[in-house]
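**User:** Here is a favour to ask of a fellow structure person. Please take any protein you like and set down a full record of it. No explanation is needed for now; the record alone will do.

**Assistant:**
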Amino acid sequence: MARRVLVSLSCLLLTTTACGGDDDGERRADRATSTTRPTTTSSSTTTTRAGAATTTTTPPPVPPVTAPPPPFAATIQTVTAEDLYASWRPGCPVPVSQLRAIDVRHFGNDGKVHTGRLIVAANLANGLVEVFRDLYDVRFPIARMEPIDVYGGDDMRSIKANNTSAFNCRAVTGGTGWSEHAYGRAIDVNPFVNPYVKGSTVLPPEAAPYTDRSRDDPGMIHADDAVVRAYAAQGWSWGGYWSSLKDYQHFSTTGR
């Protein structure tokens, strides 16, 4: 009896493996292993730091900063015979003193702001500034706007360059009388994409694809659009409304 008590006391003082046998030790080892097994997380969505899961997010891209266009601006200046070296000559129906140059900001086909020049009758200059202000507000593109002197006074060269112009001391198309352009009271806007059409005649012939007015190429003019309305507000009428022919580029104050 005394010997068995001593053995039991010894078991309490010794390691559990020695007293409980191999089976008890394996069970305890299993329990220890289960409490220290690491927790796994998805590396694509979370990271573990100091035992806490943190969601990793990607910030949205920052949109590029686009500077607003400069405000509309226009100036009206007098001109000389030297300025109009190819478009005016003695015998024209108006003297140089009755003409003005308008330097005006406009949008181009490239979406950028440009400054163009137009030569017009002096008494129409202020109203045209308002027309171009309206066109600037809707960002209507004007391919280019230079005095026709840049093209040697040649109307067809200016048209083929899609150049918007006004004054030119020349005869009416297909006739001998003075054109409204010779008085500075007519304007041709983006003339290549808005051609002159009379029956089977298209001027210039290369602009024939633009007789299809269902197209919506930059700078084209259509009935009752913002361009027609802007000119109409200042008393100008559009050649696209004519019945005997269609002059889609043409605006005038006289309807001719």
